[in-house]
Amino acid sequence: MSERYDCREAFQRTLVDLATRDERIVAVVNDSVGSSKLGAFEQAFPDRLINVGIAEQNMVGVGAGLANGGRIPFVSGAAPFLTGRALEQIKADVAYSNTNVKLCGQSPGMAYGELGPTHHSIEDLAWLRAIANLPVIVPVDPIETEAVIRWAAATEGPVFIRIGRVPVPNVNEPGYTFALGRATTLRDGADIAIIACGTMVERALEAATFLAARGVEARVLNMPTVRPLDREAVVRAAVETGAIVTVEEHTIHGGLGGAIAEVVATEAPVPMRLMGVPGVFAPTGSALALFRRFGLTAAGIAESALLLRRAAA
Amino acid sequence: MSQLHVQATAEEVREKARAIRRRNVEIIRAAGLGHIGGDLSAADILATLYFAVLNVDPEHPDDPERDRYIQSKGHASGVLYTTLAAAGFIPDSLLDTYMADGSALNGHPDRNKVPGVETNTGPLGHGLPVAVGTAIAAKLDHSPRRTFVLVGDGELQEGSNWEAIMAAGHRGLDNLVAIVDRNGLQQGARTEATNALDPLDAKFAAFGWAVRTVDGHDVEALLAAFRAVPFERGRPTCVIAKTTKGQGVSFIEDRVEWHHKVPSAEQTEQALEELS
Fold this sequence. Notes:
The structure holds 2 protein chains of 2 kinds. Helix content of chain A is about 40%, strand content about 20%. By secondary structure, chain A is of the alpha/beta class. Chain A folds into 2 domains: about 5-165, 3-Layer(aba) Sandwich (Rossmann fold), CATH 3.40.50.970; about 185-310, Rossmann fold. In chain A, strands 2-1-3-4-6-5-10 form a 7-stranded mixed β-sheet, with helices on both faces. A 5-stranded mixed β-sheet of chain A has the order 7-9-8-11-12, sandwiched between helices. The radius of gyration of chain A is 19 Å and the shape is globular. The model of chain A has no long low-confidence stretch (mean pLDDT about 95). Chain B is of the alpha/beta class. Chain B has a single domain (about 10-275), classed as 3-Layer(aba) Sandwich (Rossmann fold), CATH 3.40.50.970. Chain B is about 40% helix and about 10% strand. Chain B has helices at about 10-30, 35-50, 75-85, 125-140, 160-170, 190-195, 200-205, 220-225, 265-275; strands at about 70, 145-150, 175-180, 210-215, 235-240. Chain B has a 5-stranded parallel β-sheet with strand order 1-2-3-5-4, sandwiched between helices. Classes of the chains: A alpha/beta, B alpha/beta. Chains A and B meet through helix 3 and helix 5 of A and helix 4 and helix 5 of B. Chain A: Pfam families: Transket_pyr, Transketolase_C.
């Protein structure tokens, strides 16, 4: 688990492969060929790489129009601008119109740490999770990124996929199959549950190792689908472990932790701790420095789990 | 695909437009809701498109090779639904449910409920970007199908339109026709008093479009313009249709307060008489 990868590489590789087999696939970008790593796609399919310039509202509308014409558009741009700038287009033209548009938010969370909060995408899951008819997916590693891109191309309808830039190890085995709305148990345990997505999953797994050394067996779930949520896995975790820590590279308001808390509060109330960015604009710093700042590390998660167990006891 | 209506004469189109206006007034009266000014403003444009220009077939509303008609001014759903009914896309009886509880006919159109609607509009500034997308798709397919998009004039204050206008010009989308319903009024006041659009033709031209201004209530002029598209090879087409908000009903014409007022029983009677 030591080798780390940029999930955008798996995204671009998979998209080129899919486009080779299916001419309906096109990419739509906002001057983001480089930041979406779509240089190879552009070279192979120059006509099918539609660069609308720095214009996110038009980009999403154009994606909806291409889908109306029978194409399968992967609309790709930096996550903060794709989601924030074009939020109403995502709602009206994609989700409500039910068009076959694949929204790909690149470099989300605090990947652009040093560039400051304008470039952080730590609200995207909350914004998009509130919209009906829009699956929201956070692939955890390159294996899952490839699986999700293939699933999206083969499945009619809108979707948002959050594609990470902060390097992560593969936590899934080759041959992994993605199913919408299904969590995977990466480590079993009955003392506490840690439910995470994206960059936080490897840290949750490390935290579980740390906790095991202290006699606490933590269950670790990877929850790639933020909407629709795997309610059954959440309820099982609540009932079988009695306490849940959620961890995400996102504000603690309205993201994965919020989604899980909605289920826990209504179906299986147990104590919880929500880890993420605590409702502030982050200071200047690299992604890893900001993770440390907000306790989004293996040690921070383990400490949070121990505090929660103590409070719950 | 069949081209059911493309043969209609100007006189036939005018009669269709009169019928559409009458029915439009009736359904707004029945619903107690609607955007009557903007509906009546666009009726001649829709009648001309649906009965003499668009290659669309109500029997096959999803035919991949159909022309696309995108109505960006979604609040003028009354004229869209009434025209779709007149053209056979939806039953006329459905119009009686306009905006009623549970009806398919929302105040703003929903493509998943109403055959013939291409995209869900209502928030302004959404139609042109989608139209650029359908036009690019036709180019990728080397298809002769065309996209006609109707935008309100006040709506052009939304910046997303100018992103799309710039992209269409850059790409030379000569299979795209934007029709501006230039009635000069927006919800609260005149466009020129609110956030001026003129010189609108020069603005489109500066973005690489071929532009003509026509009388938006003169069916012959509309027909001549629509049959001449693209005005220039390699350029998107803009038809600025000079219209009167509320056209056809004397007490509604060019009055800002009639953006979404509903006529009384007496006023309805008078309107229907003026439109007969």
